[in-house]
Amino acid sequence: MEIKKQKSKLSKHKLARETINVFRTTQRNNIDLTGIADNKANVLLSVNAIMLTFIIPLVLGNIDYIVEKHIYIPLIVFAATCFTTIYMAAQVLKPSDFDKKRHSLDPNIKSSPFFFGNFYKMDVEEYYDFLTDGLANENFVKAHLAQDLYYIGRRLGKKMANIRVAFNIFIGGIFLTLITTIIVLILF
């Protein structure tokens, strides 16, 4: 019975269609960009893991020649590149810490009832109360949506920065591996 009362309270509050469309479009764009970053990280992680998978048996089968010709130097650079790129790609894919409640910047407004990290440990009654309070007025709803977009944007920015670093490490490491291989083959 209590849940039905709370549901009827929730339906009383409406946002303008334009406001909803702006939030929806922004949210969709952020989700799409997050998917792009995750796909790029998956590609980098997979390519580097496959390269390591193929190179390890080759190294083990030719260890005497590799040591004799000092090819271990570019192989160390190559392995360090692959492992570092895999680490950075995994940082992009790793879920953020959502155990910390995301508090509103405005002390008069409670944390957002729309972010799952703020309510996933609540029971259903507690969540309905939390949601009802969060929807108490249109300005609260706008503030919650803006706050959620802000945190999504921050997380997306960190993902994009990490994926850029991972690509730079990968490109630089492959180039450095090629250069060290040429130098080793010329000198030895």
Oligomer: single chain
Tertiary shape? elongated
Mean pLDDT: 87
* Cα separation of the termini: 83 Å
- The parts where pLDDT drops under 50 for at least 5 residues are none
For the biggest sheet, the summary is: none
The radius of gyration over CA amounts to 25 Å
**Tally of alpha and pi helices:** 6
Q: How many β-strand stretches? A: 0
**Which structural class do the helices and strands define?**
mainly alpha
Instruction: Count structural domains.
Output: 1
What is the chain-wise order of helices and strands?
HHHHHH
Q: Determine the strand fraction and express it as a percent band.
A: under 5%
| Helix coverage percent | over 70%
List keywords for this structure.
77% helix; mainly alpha; 0% strand; 188 residues; single chain
Structure description:
This protein is an all-alpha fold and 188 residues long. The protein has one domain. Helix content is 77%, strand content 0%. The chain contains six helices and no strands. It is elongated. It starts with a helix and ends with a helix.
Quick description:
The chain has 188 residues and is mainly α.
SSE order and pairing:
Blueprint (H helix, E strand, L loop, with lengths): L1 H10 L5 H45 L1 H6 L3 H22 L30 H11 L3 H50 L1
Helix pairs in contact: 1-5, 2-4, 2-6, 4-6
